[in-house]
Design a protein that fits this description.
This protein has a single domain, classed as hypothetical protein PF0899 fold (2-Layer Sandwich), CATH 3.30.2320.80. Helix content is 23%, strand content 31%. The protein has two helices and seven strands, in the order H-E-H-E-E-E-E-E-E. The protein has a four-stranded mixed β-sheet, covered by helices on one side.
Length: 125
């Protein structure tokens, strides 16, 4: 259920950036979803389709790019991708590790179709 407020926040952010870019119809949004974020693509898509009705983002496509969990050992400084959900350094065996990637969820880019009638896409990437 946490996808509803997350999706609303994405829509608010996209509409704000579209307005700042001079308006237009939002055609595509590019999202980064970390392995540890707990965000379910299908739920975001479900809420997106509902929330964007009668907005400049109606009919837009969501594109999800997934990132894997990456960790760093606080003892030896090794950066690694754990093969199991066990937070132990693969180099020295220390349990003193921190997540450095894979917990993110963010809007990376927005594509707009301008309202000036040119039909060309403008990108906010």
């Amino acid at each position: 259920m946490h996808e509803l407020p997350i999706t609303q926040s994405i829509l608010d952010l996209a509409l704000k950036h579209a307005a700042e870019a001079g308006g237009g119809h939002i055609t595509d949004l590019y999202l980064v979803v970390g392995q540890l974020s707990g965000v379910v693509d299908a739920s975001v898509q479900f809420y997106w389709d509902i929330l964007t009705e009668d907005t400049p983002a109606e009919g837009s496509q969501l594109h999800f790019r997934h990132t894997v969990m990456e960790m760093e050992c606080r003892e030896c400084g090794t950066t690694f991708i754990p093969e199991e959900p066990v937070f132990i350094c693969t180099a020295c065996g220390s349990p003193s590790v921190k997540v450095i990637a894979g917990d993110e969820f963010r809007l990376e880019a927005i594509d707009l179709k301008p309202t000036d009638g040119s039909g060309e896409l403008e990108s906010d990437r």
